[in-house]
Amino acid sequence: MASTTTTTLAAIVVVACLLASGPQEADAAITCGQVVGYISSCLSYARSGGAMPPKCCPGVRALNGAARTTPDRQQACACLKSLSGGMSVPYAPSIPSKCGVSVPYTISPKTDCTK
């Protein structure tokens, strides 16, 4: 089980690094690598539910604070959308509200990050 979690996390980090090295929103200062850094402790909850990891909410709040401009929020949204696309993350949409953070979109492969 730990091996599966480690493999999944490693795959997410690799994808995030690839995304971070690709074309970015011209005015966005935040990278997908940073987004993953903020939310990596939330992955077990996003996939399986249960107890919220202690470092998850501080990471979510830090990401919310770092993504202040519209381009940053769009970039963070695109990163989260891309990361959620290949995995079942049924509990991901509940994370912001459980952490007391309001975001104008739901973390989903169908989210339109341009709005």
UniProtKB/TrEMBL annotation:
Residues 1-28 form the signal peptide. Keywords: Lipid-binding, Signal, Transport. SMART domains: AAI. Coiled coil: none annotated. Residues 32-113 form the Bifunctional inhibitor/plant lipid transfer protein/seed storage helical domain. One of its GO terms (biological process) is lipid transport. It holds the Pfam family Tryp_alpha_amyl. One of its GO terms (molecular function) is lipid binding. Plant non-specific lipid-transfer proteins transfer phospholipids as well as galactolipids across membranes. May play a role in wax or cutin deposition in the cell walls of expanding epidermal cells and certain secretory tissues. Belongs to the plant LTP family. PANTHER family: NON-SPECIFIC LIPID-TRANSFER PROTEIN 2-RELATED (PTHR33076). This is Non-specific lipid-transfer protein. It comes from Acorus calamus. The gene is LTP2-A.
